[in-house]
Amino acid sequence: MLPDVMVRATAADGHIRLLAARTSRLVESARRRHDLYPVAAAALGRSMTGALLLAQTLKENEHVTFRLLGDGPLGAVVADADGKGGVRGYVKQPHVLLPLKPNGKLDVGRAVGDHGIIAISRDLGREGPYSSSAPLVSGEVAEDLASYLATSEQVPSAVALGVLVGRTQRVVQAGGVLAQLMPGGHGYAQDLEVGMQRLGQVTERLSEGLGPEDLLRLVAGTLPVVVHEECPLRFRCHCSRHRIELVLQLLSTEDLQDMLQRDQGAEVRCQFCGKLYHLDTERLTHVLDLKARKR
Ligand code: ZN
């Protein structure tokens, strides 16, 4: 499998912003960590790729939380990306099985649901977090993200996201493209539309051996492209023993004492990456002490 990478470029003298990512490895990593069934892997993979693309429109060290809260059986899909190419995520119900669509594709729209919201939170560091949401359009993720960007952020955007799951249920290809019209770029709307049609299915292009930069050039067509940056992408979680202990302090004293006396410790699994933390009686007593001190 080729390395995961993001390419940032502009076209038409900066009037179009172009971002493309190959995310096959990190989506496969998420599938293994969470034991995702194919349609869950596709929904989370598209969402993680979308979050990474959005995070690249921000400055470094800022991060994006991407939530799909639909009425489908997956429950909720959450992806969290930083501007340095790191992403993590989970789905509420990873073991969802649905029949394929008539065209043979995974029914992500039905798994997510088409009633509900797409909610995006951008943490802009000093300026504090900014959250906004839009109604889901189809639950297919790319359409929902494009609609969110057009309505909530007023940036005309075209989005393509794809995850190809193989016969062995492993993720074979994953990636995405985000193309946006910058201020003054409205004259290029038609070029963008034609360019996205030329691109077609991202996973098909990746399977043909095209890389992220090729995808961007395919969208740009004859418009001149300037590539600004290429950065590696990977699955990265920020959890730590310390953070887990902070979360445990939010539990009631009774619950903590119960864990201490009955279970002689606690096992806590990070929902973002699946890592299991074991706290022995000593650590759990320490958590209780910290909680008592905060009172
Ligand atoms: Zn974690």
Q: Can you put this structure into words, describing what you see?
A:
- With 295 residues, this protein is of the alpha+beta class.
- The protein contains ten helices and 13 strands.
- It has a six-stranded mixed β-sheet, with helices on one face. The protein has a five-stranded antiparallel β-sheet with strand order 8-9-2-1-10, sandwiched between helices. Strands 12-13 form a two-stranded antiparallel ribbon.
Spatially, the strands of the biggest sheet line up as 7-6-3-4-5-11
- Quaternary state of this entry equals single chain
Q: Would you report the number of β strands?
A: 13
Q: How much beta, percentage-wise?
A: 25-35%
Anisotropy-based shape: globular
Derived from helix and strand composition plus strand pairing, the structural class reads: alpha+beta
Question: What sequence of helices (H) and strands (E) makes up the elements?
Answer: EEHHEEEHEEHEEHHHEEHHEEH
Give me the number of helical elements: 10
Distance between the termini: 52 Å
**Could you name the ranges where pLDDT drops below 50 across 5 or more consecutive residues?**
none
Radius of gyration: 21 Å
Bound molecules: zinc ion
Which percent range fits the helix content? 25-40%
Largest sheet: 6 strands, mixed
Please tell me the overall pLDDT.
Answer: 94
